[in-house]
Amino acid sequence: MMFWNLGITLTHCLIFFLLLSIQTLLALKPGSARLMTIHWNSTNPIFRIDNTDNIIDVNKNNLPFEYDQVDLICPVYTQGSTEKNMEKYIIYNVSKDEYETCRIVNPNPSIIAVCDKPYKLMYFTITFRPFTPQPGGLEFHPGHDYYFISTSSNDDLHRRIGGKCDSHNMKIVFKVWDSKAATTSTNNPLEHSPTWWTYPSWRTTTRPTTTQPPTTTKKYKPYKNKANEVVKSEELTLGANSSSVSVKLLILCILFTSIVAMR
Fold first, then answer.
1. Which of 137, 157, 202, 235 is most buried as measured by Cβ atoms within 10 A of its Cβ?
2. CB proximity list for 225: less than 8 A, separation 6 or greater
3. Following DSSP, what letter does each residue of 136-181 receive, concatenated?
4. What are phi and psi for residue 124, nearest 5 degrees?
5. Is the pLDDT reported for residue 28 higher than 90?
6. What is the DSSP string of 92-139?
């Protein structure tokens, strides 16, 4: 009976250790999802009209249920800055026609972010997933394009026509990768590729570098240690220390097995 109990206990320990090892390997596997950072202000070179850096491909070759994210960072200023030099924006999700004309005709446009607190560090995180955990939230479906613009001006935050969209090209297109369309195109080379493939999709600048030139009014501090103005969903991850945890649990299993065997 003693050896029977010993065998059962040892089997349970081995099964537990095997499951924990599999979980550790999955947690340590590098993912392909990216976190992009975009400073939403007129001095950001991403908005230059002579390039296509504002056309960004997302979720390319990601694993299932992995989604790219972008942090839209509002302009922030030091106390005492001149009011007329402060940039304030409302960022809208619009149609293609509204994007091209810098003219919002929808009476109830979708608002992505409101940058109206120039002395407070604010950033808005967007996850490009085809579902939303919040009622009325924006969903990003594969093969679709999503257009963001800001028509605010220096003297009118709520302006709907022109504004910085027209004068400083402050608009961005996010193109959501469609893995099924890519597979179909690979298997059938004579078929036409999706229209949005004509853009330079696989450039290395999909994660924009947005270091701003130093000024006397603006301050740019690392924002990752700051409180977010938008509540972000936290994902539980198993870190690199999981391997050491596995070893400790294995040792505990062996000690427990030894105690049972001595009874």
1. 157
2. none
3. T-----TT-EEEEE---BTTBTT--BSHHHHHS--EEEEEE--HHH
4. -120, 125
5. no
6. EEE-HHHHHHTB---SSPEEEEEE--TTS--EEEEE--SS-SSTT---
On average, the pLDDT of the chain sits at: 74
Q: Are 172 and 38 in contact (CB under 8 A)?
A: yes
If phi > 0 it is left, if psi is from -120 to 50 it is alpha, else beta; for residue 65 that is left
For residue 72, what pLDDT is reported?
98
* Token pair belonging to 56: 């960004």
In this structure, the strands spanning 145-149 and 89-94 are antiparallel
d(CA 187, CA 161): 45
Would you state the structure tokens that stand for residue 54, as one six-digit string? 């504002």
Instruction: Give ∠ CA 214-230-65 in degrees, rounded to 5.
Output: 105
- Collapsed DSSP state (helix, strand, coil) of residue 63: coil
Coil vs helix vs strand at 226: coil
CA distance 222 to 173: 25
Confidence tier at 132 by pLDDT (50, 70, 90)? confident
Residue whose token pair is 């690979």? 186
Give the single-character DSSP code of 108: S
Task: Write down the residue that tokens 């690392």 correspond to.
Answer: 222
For residues 11 and 49, what is the distance between their CA atoms, to the nearest angstrom?
Answer: 66
Tokens found for residue 118: 């120039």
Dist CA 96 CA 118 (whole Å): 29
pTM beyond 0.90: no
Please name the amino acid found at residue 122.
Answer: M
Residue 228 is given by DSSP the state P
- pLDDT band (50, 70, 90) for residue 208: very low
Exposure string for 97-106, b = 16+ CB within 10 A, e = fewer: ebbebbbbee
